Amino acid sequence: MTMDTTNNNEAELAEKLSFDKFRNEVIKDYRIACESRETSLLGRKEVLTGKAKFGIFGDGKEIAQVAMAKFFRPGDFRAGYYRDQTFMFASGLATIEQFFSQLYADPDVANDPFSAGRQMNAHFATKMVDENGDWLDLVERKNVSSDIAPTAGQMPRGLGLAFASKAFRNIKQTHQLTHLSNNGNEICFCTIGDASTSEGHFWETINAAGVLQVPLAVFVWDDGYGISVPKKYQTTKASISDALKGFQKKDGTNGIDIYKLKGWDYAGMCEILEPAIQKIRDTHTPAVFHVEEITQPQGHSTSGSHERYKTPERLEWEKEWDGLKQMREWILANALAETEELNSIEENARQFARESKQKAWDKYIDPIKKMVARTVDTLRSFEEANTPVKKLTDELASLREPMRRDIMKTLATVLDITENNDAVKQLYGSFKSENAVLYNSYLYNDGPRSALKVPAIDPYYTDDSPLVNGYEVLNKYFDELFATNNKVIAFGEDLGHIGDVNQGFSGLQEKHGKERIFDTGIRELTIMGQGIGLSLRGLRPIAEIQYLDYLLYGLQPLSDDVCTTHFRTAGQQSCPLIVRTRGHRLEGIWHSGSPMGMIINALRGMYVCVPRNMVQAAGMYNTLLQSNDPGLVIECLNGYRLKEKLPSNLMAYTVPLGVPEVIKAGTDITMVSYGSTLRIVMEAAEALDKAGTSCEVIDVQTLLPFDINHAIVASLKKTNRIVFIDEDVPGGAAAYMFNKVMEEQGGYKFLDVSPRTITAKAHRPSYGSDGDYFSKPNTEDIIAVIKEMMSE
Ligand SMILES: Cc1ncc(C[n+]2csc(CCOP(=O)(O)OP(=O)(O)O)c2C)c(N)n1
Predict the structure, then answer these.
(1) Largest CB tally within 10 Å, which of 297, 388, 470, 590?
(2) What per-residue confidence (pLDDT) applies to 387?
(3) CA of 77 to the centre of ligand 1 (A)
(4) Does an H or E element contain 519, and which?
(5) What is the rounded distance in angstroms from the CA atom of residue 183 to the CA atom of residue 215?
(6) Spacing, Cα 319 to ligand 1 middle (Å)
(7) Considering only CA atoms, which residue is closest to atom 12 of ligand 1?
(8) What is the pLDDT of residue 5?
(9) DSSP letter assigned to residue 557
């Protein structure tokens, strides 16, 4: 009897404790949801009153996101978009104050830790790499890959982040990297709006995830619209979960799991998510959570009002099914709290959001006001003598919300008026460099892991170094690389089983394993995404695009995501992806492209290597692998069967980036080129030499960076004639080289005759050798142009 009573008491106590824990959890979630809503309401006001430029908020998604955040663990990753503020607050990865700092574009990373004021608001990130470029312990922290604005742009990256878990789980060579993964248990939580699922990125990602079986949890926030366009114009059957049905995993098949949730139903969502997320973690089966019946109380963004496109009935429905209202009613119905308690939570939330906003504003404006004060101080000394200066100073001093540019404009005008007064000049100069640090830094790594700081080591040859085919240089190189570097992974179309279309990886899958060297589907976009995710998680992927012409399919994630990663996180994330491809001259419209102008203009933030042969290519891979900067290496498609001497120090030698090589010395004219074109250039140069014109041929080796030590102008000083030759369209990369040498290097000062570019035609080349001859620069044309220059 006594025993029974004790048991009863203990059971009651345990029940009470677990009830209290549950209740506290619910109340905490409700509080976070309320604070987040207040943040959205206040945020919109800040934009409408002009304190911030643009605002986009997570109102309407609060309840779904507090539910989701419960299952996001240390080690996990998020690849999301701009609606996820509540998830960030609930995961402890953002404060309201930080949210407002980003809204104000505060360039101090201590205030906006996501982007140092570089990104629009609600574009989140967490720090993954330290100041030395070493990866932090990602297993013990919750990780957020930096958001980007292009809709669905997070999908390929999300796939890659999830894929990395699979790699870590299956590749035994990575098992000692315990700071990067715990046996691949990490899930990537990926969020997307319902309308953005119309993008090809979504479908390619879902298909790849279904094939690969990776721990990807995709949450579709379905509020029925993409800005103003309703989902009947976006999605087949106006339901993404219905449209996805063929992807559903069944017994004995691959595929994805699909769940439907109601965005206002806190309890219902938690119940579904708990086992579903655990299953993803354990089995690496991807899942889509279609979160329906979500609202958007303030409309899409501060750019417009939703009354323009939502019917009165819809607006009424949104009010009734607002997640906060529903959660509140559910709490009361289940006696988890009294009305007074909820009222006070709501009031405190309002107060807290207001205070946080104010703190963020003070932190933002304070340094600017100090700059204004310094400026005004300096300018007051001119006032008496100079009325226009006094007027400008007064104007600046009276600005209630000054900006840095107001100060710069004032100083520049005063400089003009005072004819370059020293004190003003000094102040202007020092503000200019301070602002450059805030606004123009971090495009590339400039710390110890900068690709430009990798020491140059020459290839080493012995008397009996063998002469081998170009592809064999790479094959031997990759073999040694995979034997010595446990972080490298290579993949692409036809790269695994047959060892790539030109045999660079021939036999290597068998030797180094299917987990490290493997085939992918034909999906350049998500191949890039796989590479991005693996890179962010500290591995060293070499992701292959089969032919340069098909880089276009993968260009968007490189340009929007890879190239901006380091910049948009102010150096807190690095994406050292290596993209390997082959291109330039071969045959036909889509196997001969050399669209280098397009590439270098799209890829500032990556390094672009254009090796003339495979020995140079391997040296560039070595350089890139020692750095944290991303790079594209374009091998010469027609060079795999040309003979090259095999260096004996394959793993050690490096090709420094941005350092051209004079591959033939001469005195009469400088010929600047790269890649496959160099063979034509050399043919022309040798013929011209015989005819008495001494040609100096320079291989630029990399287009980004370009001739950092100005070696080309040094050659021009000697020859006083220069021609830039490539197989891009007119005005493409040859024009870029021309501009660099003439403007940046001041080459125009050393010209005896007008400089030239020789390029391919504007159209793509016709098929066959004659098509090639008449479309791309040929030896005879080059000789003719140079003869003309010599006679000028
Ligand atoms: C590639 C691209 N196209 C267009 C836009 C402009 N845009 C921004 S958000 C948006 C609608 C997205 O709707 P949805 O995916 O449903 O997300 P929601 O904003 O409703 O959460 C559009 C068209 C963009 N950012 N990126």
Answers:
(1) 470
(2) 86
(3) 22
(4) strand 517-519
(5) 12
(6) 23
(7) 226
(8) 58
(9) I
Write out the two tokens for 189: 């939580």
Regarding the beta carbon of 229 and ligand 1, being less than 6 Å apart is answered no
The residue nearest atom 1 of ligand 1, judged by CA position, is 150
Query: Cβ neighbours of residue 602 under 8 Å, at least 6 residues apart?
Result: 555, 558, 559, 563
* CA-nearest residue, atom 25 of ligand 1: 150
d(CA 311, CA 590): 49
10-residue averages of pLDDT along the chain (792 residues): 62 86 96 98 96 96 98 98 98 98 98 98 98 97 98 98 98 98 98 98 98 98 96 97 98 98 98 98 98 96 93 97 98 97 98 98 98 96 82 96 97 94 96 97 97 98 97 98 98 98 97 98 98 98 97 98 98 98 87 92 98 98 98 96 98 98 98 97 98 98 98 98 97 98 98 97 93 94 98 93
Q: What is the pLDDT of residue 4?
A: 57
How many other CB atoms sit within 10 Å of the CB of residue 163? 30
How distant, in Å, are the alpha carbons of 58, 530, 609, 727, 733 from that of 593? 44, 25, 16, 8, 13
User: Does any ligand 1 atom lie closer than 6 A to the CB of residue 149?
Assistant: yes
Q: Are 729 and 597 in contact (CB under 8 A)?
A: yes
How far apart are alpha carbons 56 and 85 in whole angstroms? Answer: 10
| 3 state DSSP class of 694 | coil
Using a 6 Å cutoff on CB, does residue 223 contact ligand 1? yes
Nearest to 543 by CA among 654, 636, 621, 651: 621
Ligand 1 near 83 CB (within 6 A): yes
91 lines ligand 1 (CB under 6 A): no
* CA proximity to 566, closest of 529, 600, 532, 527: 532
SS3 (DSSP) at 114: coil
**248: which DSSP letter?**
B
| Ligand 1 centroid distance, CA of 640 (Å) | 44
> Which token pair is 474?
């790479």
Tell whether ligand 1 has an atom less than 6 A from the beta carbon of residue 226.
Answer: yes
Atom of ligand 1 nearest to the CA of 149: 25
CA 47 to mean position of chain CA atoms? 27
Q: Report the alpha-carbon distance of residue 596 to residue 580 in Å, rounded.
A: 15
Q: Quote the pLDDT of residue 16.
A: 84
Q: How far apart are CA 671 and CA 722, in angstroms?
A: 6
Q: Which atom of ligand 1 is nearest to the CA of 196?
A: 15
DSSP string, 144-188: EPPP-SSTTTHHHHHHHHHHHHHHHHH-GGGTT-TTT-STT-PPE
Write out the E strands in 690-735: 695-699, 702-704, 722-725
Choose the residue to mutate in 61, 65, 121, 151 for probing ligand 1, maximizing ligand atoms within 8 Å of C-beta.
151
Question: According to the model, what pLDDT value does residue 17 have?
Answer: 78
pLDDT given for residue 592 in this prediction = 78
Do residues 477 and 618 make contact, with C-beta atoms less than 8 angstroms apart? yes
Report the nearest atom of ligand 1 relative to the CA of 192.
15
The ligand 1 atom at the shortest distance from the C-alpha of residue 301 is 19
Question: Atom 14, ligand 1: which residue's CA is nearest?
Answer: 193
Distance CA(81)–CA(183), nearest Å, equals 27
Q: Which residues pair with 10 in a beta bridge?
A: none
Task: Kindly state the tokens that stand for 577.
Answer: 């992806």
Instruction: Please report the atom of ligand 1 found closest to the CA of residue 225.
Output: 16
CA of 161 to the centre of ligand 1 (A): 22
What string of DSSP letters covers 728-770?
Answer: S-TTSHHHHHHHIIIIIS-GGGG-SS--EEE---SSPPPSHHH
Cα–Cα distances in angstroms (integers) from residue 122 to residues 159, 375, 654, 785, in the given order: 21, 33, 41, 55
CA 198, 535, 616, 452 torsion: positive or negative? positive
Phi, psi angles (nearest 5°) of residue 104: -80, -5
Minimum CA distance residue for ligand 1 atom 8: 151
Q: Are strands 643-645 and 467-469 parallel, antiparallel or unpaired?
A: antiparallel
Asked if 556 and 526 touch (Cβ cutoff 8 Å), the reply is no
